[in-house]
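User: I'm new to structure prediction. If I give you an amino acid sequence, what do you actually give back? Let's try with this one:
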Amino acid sequence: MSVSSVSSSAASATSTASASATTSTSSSTSSSSSTTLSTTAFLNLLITELQNQDPLNPTDPTQFTTELIDLTGVEQQQQTNDTLTTISTNLSTLISAMEA
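Assistant: Good question. You get back a string of structure tokens that encode the predicted 3D arrangement of the chain. For your 100 residues, that looks like this:
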């Protein structure tokens, strides 16, 4: 596996993780496990990329930093989605209790 294919696979995993994080789901559990899998896959690709890079032509630090920032952004979006789901559930419960 060449460095460029690993790099493009890592970028693809980042895009996939970003897309899955912005897709709303009905269950926060399935949503969290989806993000965990994407995070694990991303980190595995990143480690593989680092292990197989050419020592005379290493990965551009800017690209590496951008990939890590993308991962952090996806994780923060997932935490926000989980928090909003919790708030929504609590508000629905409160409104139901007030109506009863």
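You can read the tokens as a compact description of the fold. Here is one thing that stands out. The CA atoms of residues 21 and 78 lie 6 Å apart.
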